């Protein structure tokens, strides 16, 4: 399936709806971009959903430590 999108001045692109449906992409999902000669390859990463914290909710020290650890693990994975 081939779709054409325009790059904005902030270098952002919109994933076309048909591709979002085919890959099951939802808000908060992570995508991985790779290149192969003159092609860009996009993969949906499973299980790397961005964690959000509702504002105004009090967090325990244990929750903060756990969230920091999760963030560090995700960062280490994306560096490779």
UniProtKB/TrEMBL annotation:
Gene Ontology MF terms in the entry:
DNA binding
| InterPro entries per the UniProt record, alphabetical | Repressor-like_regulatory, SpoVT-AbrB_dom, SpoVT-AbrB_sf
Domain SpoVT-AbrB, residue spans: 5-50
Extract the Pfam families matched here. MazE_antitoxin
What protein does this entry describe? AbrB family transcriptional regulator
Domain of life, per the record? Archaea
Q: Which NCBIfam families match?
A: lp_hng_hel_AbrB
User: Upper lineage ranks?
Assistant: Archaea, Candidatus Marsarchaeota, Candidatus Marsarchaeota group 2
- Species source reads Candidatus Marsarchaeota G2 archaeon ECH_B_2
Q: Which Gene3D superfamilies match?
A: 2.10.260.10
């Amino acid at each position: 399936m081939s779709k054409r999108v325009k790059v904005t001045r902030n270098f952002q692109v919109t994933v076309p709806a048909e591709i979002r449906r085919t890959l099951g992409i939802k808000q908060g999902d992570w995508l991985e971009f790779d290149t192969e000669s003159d092609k860009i390859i996009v993969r949906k990463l499973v299980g790397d959903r961005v964690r959000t914290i509702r504002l105004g909710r009090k967090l325990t020290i244990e929750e903060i430590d756990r969230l920091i650890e999760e963030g560090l693990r995700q960062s280490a994975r994306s560096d490779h």
